[in-house]
What we know:
Helix content is 56%, strand content 11%. A hairpin with a 3-residue loop joins strand 1 (22-24) and strand 2. Helix 2 (84-96) packs parallel to helix 3 (112-124), helix 4 (151-175) packs antiparallel against helix 8 (254-280) and helix 8 (254-280) packs antiparallel against helix 9 (283-310). It folds into 3 domains: 1-47, no CATH class; 74-142, Ribosomal Protein S8, Chain: A, domain 1, CATH 3.30.1370; 148-353, Phosphate transport system protein phou homolog 2, domain 2 (Methane Monooxygenase Hydroxylase, Chain G, domain 1), CATH 1.20.58.220. It has helices at residues 35-40, 84-96, 112-124, 151-175, 182-207, 209-214, 223-247, 254-280, 283-310, 314-345, 348-353; strands at residues 22-24, 28-30, 49-55, 58-63, 74-78, 101-105, 128-133, 137-142. By secondary structure, the protein is an alpha+beta fold. The strands form 3 sheets. Strands 5-6-8-7 form a 4-stranded mixed sheet, with helices on one face.
Amino acid sequence: MPDVPTRPEEPESGRAAVRSVQRTGLSSLAVTLPKAWTQAFNVRSGSLVRFQDLGEGRLEVSLAGQLADGGSRTLSLDATDLAPSLVARLLVGAYITGQDRIVLTSPEEFPVSLREEVARIAQRVLGMSLIEDEGRRLEVQVFLDPTKHRLPSLLDRVVRMVRMEVELCERALHRSNPALLRQVAQVEEEIDRFYLLIARQILLASNDFQVARDIGVPSHHYQLGYRVVVKMLEVAGDLVATIAIELEPDLPGGKDAEELVAQLEAFDAVLVRTMTAFREVSASEAHEALTQIEGWIEQEEKLSAALIGRSRDKVGAARLQKILSSLGTAMEMLGVVNEITINRSVEPETVARTGGHPVLARPSPAA
């Protein structure tokens, strides 16, 4: 008598389960779903699930994302006695995690400070609007179609804005014109807006494979890398904005200005190379960018000593030190991006698409 396969025990959370495929009807095959998973996500008879072919014999099963109210995610928030700053952070968190509608209520009338803070966040965040402002009820709506904003294009936009910040600093030093530096803050704020949008896109893509395909994320394994990369760019943008703030009170001139411009140009060149390598998943280009960054960091101490040694006073020396420190930290952010690129070049998903080999070649000249 042939052996009858027994049903494996339920695995511990996070561990793989092996199950027998059973025949149902004349030609259909079926496999049962793990009980722990169905209970955790309230999967019942009639629930819709989505299948995604990941290649190499792998099939991913996920909930189809059908929502009770026809597709809108609503967050109801009792804002009684909450500080305006906390409400602002909760609104940003709700936006990033994919909420479409946030309703704030209170048994008493909201203070003016909280209402102003909600209005400020709604104005700052892309696609968010304050659509109802009553005494004890505020409603914020997010009007965004996630499939209309491709992730690579959004990322390129952030890179262009960081480069714009750098260019404004360079032009201010060349022309001894501090007014140009005041524009950097506006660009930095726009970078923050796009960072929040990209973070939202990535979270939505992680829950819906159709969204992931539509926005240009070929594998769910890449989503965490994208999140880290855009965060590194957002921090780099903040650091360049800090440089502009330090430059504005007393713009250096002469040799100091020339050397600072050279360092900003070096950062811009590494930024371009880093993001080209990331876009093309080129381990060779990322490695060379990392080598450039390491070389720059080695020379930073000497440059810092030279600039500070020529400084006219302690305040000026401290400002120059902060400028170089901010630029060095921004370089380190790019180093993280290059490490992600190198790792991505040997990830199973990437290797499967290139016939079993990492992407080592240099990007094409047109990149």
